[in-house]
Amino acid sequence: VGHAVLAINGAEVNGRLTADGKDVLEFLGNPANYPVSIRFGRHRLSSNEKLMLASMFHSLFAIGSQLSPEVGSSGIEMLETDTFKLHCFQTLTGIKFVVLADPRQAGIDALLRKIYEIYSDFALKNPFYSLEMPIRCELFDQNLKLALEVAEKAGPFGPGS
């Protein structure tokens, strides 16, 4: 529940259509297409939904830094529940990177630093990127996707476990 088909045989799926315009249900209904590799995951958020979640987290982050018993607290670094951990990395310039992960997942701090490195290399050095605007850069997307795949392959207990 709450998951959608993200890719079939490595081809991205957008809604009910594959990247080449085929209907997903028709493709899966045809026995000639088997065996098939299907990647599931959460549905993609719209730009408005992303902005709404970011603004809600920013408010919680500010409240957390004000309510913290720690003097000079910079805000939320990690929020842990039974089903997920929310990790936040805030740069010296105030940019926040947020990752939701399995509670057992190791290496999230290294992943956050890698995401910041990718952001610095491919967004900030891009002359067409404007601060506080959505990042529209193919190299950024490719490198971020690669970093997430590496972290995902490390497994829920990190490398060497």
UniProtKB/TrEMBL annotation:
UniProt-listed CDD domains: TRAPPC4_synbindin (cd14856)
Keywords: Cell membrane, Endoplasmic reticulum, ER-Golgi transport, Golgi apparatus, Membrane, Postsynaptic cell membrane, Synapse, Transport
Pfam families reported for this sequence: Sybindin
Cell compartment(s), UniProt: Endoplasmic reticulum; Golgi apparatus, cis-Golgi network; Golgi apparatus membrane; Postsynaptic cell membrane
InterPro entries given in the database record: Longin-like_dom_sf, TRAPPC
Protein family: Belongs to the TRAPP small subunits family. TRAPPC4 subfamily.
Protein name as catalogued: Trafficking protein particle complex subunit
Gene: Trappc4
Taxonomy, superkingdom: Eukaryota
GO cellular component, one term: vesicle
Gene3D superfamilies: 3.30.450.70
Biological-process GO terms, alphabetical: endoplasmic reticulum to Golgi vesicle-mediated transport
Organism: Anhinga anhinga (Anhinga)
